[in-house]
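Budget justification note: compute hours in this period were largely spent on complex prediction jobs such as the one shown. Inputs:
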Amino acid sequence: MSRNSRPPHPDTVPILRETAGHLDSSTRRLFLRGALGLGTLTLLCGCDVVDGISAETVLSRMSDFNDRVQAWLFSPQRLAREYPESAITRPFPFNSFYTPNSPDQAPVIDPVKYHLNVSGLVDDRSDWTLVRLYALPRVTQITRHICIEGWSAVGKWSGVRFSDFLRLVGADLRAKYVTFHCDDRYTTSIDMPTALHPQTILAFWFDDAVLPRRYGFPMKLRVPTKLGFKNPKHIGEIEVGNDYTGGYWETYGYNWFSGL
Amino acid sequence: MSVLIRRNAMRVGRGSSIIHPVIVRITHWVNAAAMVIMIMSGWQIHNAYPTLPFEFPAVLALGSDLTGALRWHFAAMWLLAVNGSIYFVYGLVSGRFVSKLMPIRPSDVIRDFRAALAGRLEHGDQSTYNAVQRLLYAGVIGAGILIVLTGVSIWKPVQFRILTTLFGDFDAARLIHFAAMSVIVLFLIVHVVMAILVPASLRAMIRGR
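Corresponding output:
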């Protein structure tokens, strides 16, 4: 870089004095670190070569970059494949965020006392009973649930189109995020374009029966365009807003968008 | 005919001319790093829910758990994609793929493979590849294309639905992704052993000649 093969420009010295001369050595080091941290090249350096920039920081930035790429790739019209009845996986696998990973740990929710809260940027914040929710227009889908662990299973869910529900409560459809607070203390959030996708539904039925406790009674968000952990169960509150809220697994480092 | 001339030109210039241009050497080593990250993090991802009934040893898996492994995998994929594209486009446009790897005749492969097993295969001239090398290099480029396409199809089975359907849906695409990885790892073992046995080939990939 500083090979003196050519004579320096006559103005070099004063210019350097004007600019770099003001930087103390620690600032210059910071600048160099910043410069080195740019781009995926750092990935090659690994964690300890450039101290101050850990592999974790680079990986987090790449995950944020992947969020933006996936939002750009996502098509509001493109549909997840729908399957015939014969393709349904039975028994459908159970999976949860709690340990032990057992259906016995799933929350017991009284259907009579149950209320769904709607909060944030919505006109109608009144609570919803199950009777009102069950009366909403129903659609059915047989789609593939793909888990971040790598397994997949085909299931049949019925419920109301989430876009219909959001319009019904007068949600601000230009808001960035929809967050789900669940009765088992699980949380996650999705982007508005995905919330408005025609296959994103609030499911109250599974395989032609009331959604069982193990699969999220009384309701689960079914999003066939996202990985399984973005399909929250036992939803107690739906919040519309512009502030990033993340989610349970997202705080452990799972990619937020996790689109399919 | 043009292939013949080009190869003869290379023979004439042997010793002084560059065997591997700098773009090939840089993309080769960047690819080596990206591939190792992809393979080792991929093994950790497999361990999260082993589709095939075994787990990879923890020491060979990159990322402390599934979360870390996925972060490595989805970061290094961009390095692999950008670097791989440069290598691939250069190989096609410059004619390097054709001049170095073609033709591959089955009879030549059998002849050279027998010679290799008997320890009689010439490795003195680094500017041309024998038939076994051509087959292996062409094969690993094919496996590389396959692993990227199956990777895209299990990363985005809705957005690239046609691709996923082409591979026989999500689960099948995932298995093909694994199979392509296995082919690449087998190639890597042979490739590294040969580079150790024939140091001139390693030197050519570092210094260019």
